[in-house]
Amino acid sequence: MFAPKNILVPTDFSEHSDRALAEAVDIARQHKARIYLLHVLGVVRQCVSDYCMPADLLEDVREEAMRSTREMIRSQIEKVGPPTDTEIIPDIGEGTLHTRKY
Predict the structure, then answer these.
(1) What's the predicted TM-score (pTM) here?
(2) Which domains, and CATH codes, for the chain?
(3) Would you tell me the crossing angle of helices 55-79 and 15-31 to the nearest 10 degrees?
């Protein structure tokens, strides 16, 4: 029988991600499961081609990206209503993003 205890919901903050989170919340409520809401930021490189950004500016860009992402995650969680009976654990990763065109 399908009875998840942990549900991973990757998000790119699109309408599709909003619907996926809403579905995950429904499933989590039925099974008393925990939701991990994950967004991955692309790596910000200091040097690209023949241009290098100053290290302090690079750190400012990263901090702003993290702040903005935390706010977007908070907003996405609010869209599904207060998680009174479902634990939603937000997480932000950083890495190389891969996309596939269909």
Answers:
(1) 0.83
(2) 6-93 (3.40.50.620)
(3) 60
